[in-house]
Amino acid sequence: MIEVAQLARDEGIVLRTQDHAETDRIAVVLTPNHGRLDLLAKGARRMEQAAGAALDVLNVVKIIYYRRRSGLHLLKEVELVRTFPGIRSDLDRATTALGGIEWALALIPTEAPDERVHRLTVEFLTALDAGHPPRVLALGYVLRLLAVAGHRPHLDGCLSCGAQDGLTWSPERGGLLCRPCGGSGEAVSPRVWRTLGAIARLPLPALARLRVEETDLERGEALVRGFREAQLRR
Questions:
Q1: pLDDT digit string (tens) for 92-142?
Q2: pLDDT, position 1
Q3: Radius of gyration from C-alpha coordinates of the chain
Q4: SS3 193
Q5: Which residues contact 219 (CB under 8 A, 6 or more apart)?
Q6: Are strands 35-41 and 60-67 parallel, antiparallel or unpaired?
Q7: Looking at residue 116, what is its pLDDT?
Q8: Residue 158, exposed/middle/buried by CB under 10 A (0-12, 13-18, 19+)?
Q9: C-alpha of 156 from chain center
């Protein structure tokens, strides 16, 4: 039976691109209505093709494409909607944005529509573009991504008994765990886990007003990286 491709349209953020064949390009686009899409853009690497420029990573684009039941969807048209010049003109912000996108690629499966992921990513890039502190913003973004992906770390006392003292970091178990309840990981000071909790709760734009000690930020980043690795191994 010949497959009849369905024409669809959406708007999304370009997360990744890679060259394919001689003139084609594969683009991964995060959309609100169809989730994460893998699209084949035929001829996009030719200089005269506007799609080549529109499909730069971090661009917001409107797309019209043919949906296939298997393999790559086929891009028909693409229109550039928005870039983030404040990110592109600053190396630290660009590095932070790309690092956040790598988290999205690791945590969000293809073809799993969830408008929250798209909205969160737009909010992250918008705040970063506006000049908000990049590292705190990135930590807030990845904590929310973990939650949306079903890996929310427990940051409000011991996950077993609710104790507030003597807490350790137990990523395989889901977050904070006191030693009497079996916690055997790294000890976490109250200031660090409460800071992480505040970063996870506050709206992303409000994180610009949060004052975080450098040592606490570094510790929090390390804990969250270890948490992701442990959760993805499960």
A1: 999 999 999 999 999 999 888 889 999 999 999 999 999 999 999 999 999
A2: 42
A3: 20
A4: helix
A5: 188, 192
A6: unpaired
A7: 94
A8: buried
A9: 23
In the prediction, which pLDDT does 76 show? 93
* 186 class by beta-carbon count within 10 Å (0-12 exposed, 13-18 middle, 19+ buried): middle
Inter-axis angle of helices 190-201 and 214-233, nearest 10: 70
Place of tokens 């990513």: 121
Q: Do 56 and 32 share a structural domain?
A: yes
Out of 50, 83, 116, a domain closes at 83
Token pair 């956040």 is found at: 100
| Total tally of structural domains belonging to the chain | 2
Given the DSSP bridges, would you call strands 167-170 and 35-41 parallel, antiparallel or unpaired?
unpaired
| CA 170/CA 230 separation, integer angstroms | 9
- Pick the closest to residue 193 from 163, 230, 173, 172 (CA basis): 163
Tell me how far apart the alpha carbons of residues 126 and 63 are, in angstroms, rounded to a whole number: 21
Q: In what order do the strands lie in the sheet with 175-178?
A: 175-178, 167-170, 186-187
Contacts 24+ apart (CB under 8 A), 149-158: 149/107, 149/108, 151/107, 151/227, 151/228, 151/231, 153/196, 153/200, 153/224, 153/227, 155/193, 155/196, 155/197, 155/200, 156/197, 158/183
Burial of 224 (0-12, 13-18, 19+ CB in 10 A): buried
110 and 58 belong to one structural domain = no
Domain boundary among 27, 53, 83: 83
Q: How far apart are CA 90 and CA 96, in angstroms?
A: 10
